[in-house]
Amino acid sequence: MGHGHHHHRHEHGHGHTHGPEEATALPAAFDTTVPDEALTPEQRSRRSLLRRAGLLGAGLAAGGVLGQATPAAATGGRRTHGFLWLAGDHHIHTQYSSDGKYRVVDQVRQGAKHGMDWLVITDHGSATHAKIGVEKVNPDIKEARTAYEDTLVFQGLEWNIPGAEHGTVFVHPGRNEVSVLKQFETDYDGSVKGASDSTPANEALAVAGLAFLGDQVRRRKVKDALMLANHPARRGVDSPHEIRAWRDATAASGRQIAVGFEGAPGHQAAGLPAPLGMARARGIYDNNPSANSFAGYPLESYRTWGGFDWMTATVGGLWDSLLAEGKPWWITANSDSHNVYADTAVRGPGGDFNANGRYEDPVYGGKIDITQGDYWPGQYSRTHVGADGFSYAAVMDGIRAGRVWVDHGQLVSGLDVRVLGGGRWATLGGALHVRKGTNVTLTVDVALAGGPNWAGFTPELARVDVIQGDVTGPVGDKDTFTAPTAKVVKSYEIDKPSGTVRLTYQLGRVDRPLYVRLRGTDGNRSGVGPMGAAVDPAGPAIDVVGDADPWRDLWFYSNPVWVLPS
């Protein structure tokens, strides 16, 4: 199935700990040996979030958010085993984007305040950015790394994918981070190269760009590189065969560069109705097909569903068709922060973006602007990564491994997912290898919201759905975007407002390869899924353009776990 080898290293036995690893200092907000009064305002804000959620100390150092572990205080503030679940955002713009305005340090400060452990600065690829901006932003990123040492700040860019939409590209920090990104943007950006149309030549250029990144890692120019497609269904130009080509572009090298797409786009405040908001669509998903769009996509794919992209929100849809091949492809959720809703900042006067590669520093103190559609990093959307430590490499490894779950509006505080059978277990992104006929169980521990979110209320989880699909192998038609066996197999009503809940689902004696993934909701808006009630009786409802308050429609999604009997 093209799957077992990739995931073999993520298979675990009971009580198994990951191999020896250099101890990594926890961020100060996590470290209970550091008193509150010794923290910066941003660190105190983060600790307050952790404390309200009941995740301060032992829970964060566990093999899962809710697993058993030695408390951080007992280990001198250092993790000895298991995963750190680090929240982040890989899609953030600054004054170095033609449509941005904030300084790097503004976005990092706000991200830290809103509980982000890692961030990726992704200013738009363009001729100006390639020539000037990619170099000029780097000192600002380095200054932010020094000023906010508890936040990992990656340099990346938002790639205009040749023949397609946008994507986040970022690299591990190091002496060549600027030169590699600059060469990549100069040689492979669709805007820079005039390669935006959906043509075979432009699609091949995108694959060549990913191969270039893989080669830079192989040649040790940079330690690692990743690409994730952004807002993939927004304009309908990311065809199924292109997504598969990106995924497979570096498969022969053994290191996948393109690893997933945004399950939920940014710009979530754009759906707020007038007179309180800009009255557009969540994610600014208010487009229609164009000449470059993939003709097979239905009209409803151009809208979000409960704030999530149609490719992810549709049970039995495109994401499930990729998972059914038995190959990794993950989802994330990000802010796409350019101009923040209800902020008072405006671009500084004067300056010449095309000449300088940036706008002047923003000026604050004006009127509150409710015509913008973005939130700060972490204010609404979060991507949680299970990392082997607090480091750039650990975050990138966790993303590539698929140890990721996402949520909106701080719907839940923590998620621990395990599939167990034959004396072994696997978690998100992993595969459980068992003998055919082994009895397999899914266990899910959910830490419910422990206090008010950034909108001022405590969200309540109403339901959790288990989604299951068969692994059927590579598709003959690369433009396939359905998976007929995927469906909701179990739903659990949650009847408590706080604390933790444990859910158990019996997969039975497994005799065929399959995967399971999770979804949860506050229950405010649901509807029959696009594939019908037999597949998804109560999925996210399509969002109404001009009237979609994101805070009244909250969901979480997890990446899958595979079960592979032999």
Automatic annotation (TrEMBL):
Q: What is the lineage of its organism?
A: Bacteria, Bacillati, Actinomycetota, Actinomycetes, Kitasatosporales
> Which PANTHER family does this chain map to?
EXONUCLEASE, POLYMERASE_HISTIDINOL PHOSPHATASE N-TERMINAL DOMAIN-CONTAINING PROTEIN
Q: Spans of biased composition, class Basic residues?
A: 1-17
Name the segments for region: Disordered.
1-22
Source organism: Streptomyces lincolnensis
Gene Ontology MF terms: 5'-3' DNA exonuclease activity; 5'-3' RNA exonuclease activity
Name of the protein in its database record: Uncharacterized protein
